[in-house]
Amino acid sequence: MAMTRIRVGLLPSTQFIAGTLPVPKVKNPDTGEVATDLDTGETLHILPVFLMAEGRAEQMKITVPESGLSGGLQPGMPVRVAELFATPWARVFNGQLSNGVAYRAAALELVK
């Protein structure tokens, strides 16, 4: 079954703030294998960010390839999210349904 990717349109007033430093995304927690992009083989990283819109903040985790991370990125810095996609997912584990949305961006750039 193919996963549905949905392009996320952002209003110009939407702001993102880096929550922590990016960390490599783990593909297999049992082995510690790091996730890579299927097309390029590039290491993927996860970065928690705060989406600031309409007077509220929401935390979300965004997966970004290593080449899409700006040098000098630090927690609390404003970032611009380039080419954001959302992928809804669901799975059954130990008889329990889990679901959510995974976010992937081409780049997180520092706002100057």
Description:
The chain has no helices and eleven strands. The chain is mainly β and 112 residues long.
Compact summary:
By secondary structure, the protein is an all-beta fold. It is 0% helix and 54% strand. It has strands at residues 6-7, 15-18, 23-24, 26-28, 33-34, 44-53, 56-65, 78-82, 85-93, 96-104, 107-110.
Mean pLDDT: 92
Q: Count all strands and give the number.
A: 11
**Rg over C-alpha atoms, rounded to the nearest angstrom:** 15 Å
**What structural class do you assign from the helix and strand content?**
mainly beta
Q: Strand share of the residues?
A: over 45%
For this entry, what is the oligomeric state of its chains?
single chain
State the end-to-end distance: 41 Å
- Low-confidence segments, ≥5 residues, pLDDT <50? none
Largest sheet: 9 strands, mixed
Q: What's the tally of helices?
A: 0
Write down the overall geometry. Answer: globular
Percent helix: under 10%
Secondary-structure element order, N to C: EEEEEEEEEEE
Helix and strand arrangement:
Elements: E1 6-7, E2 15-18, E3 23-24, E4 26-28, E5 33-34, E6 44-53, E7 56-65, E8 78-82, E9 85-93, E10 96-104, E11 107-110
Looking at this protein, list some descriptive labels:
112 residues, mainly beta, two-stranded antiparallel sheet, 11 strands, 0% helix, globular
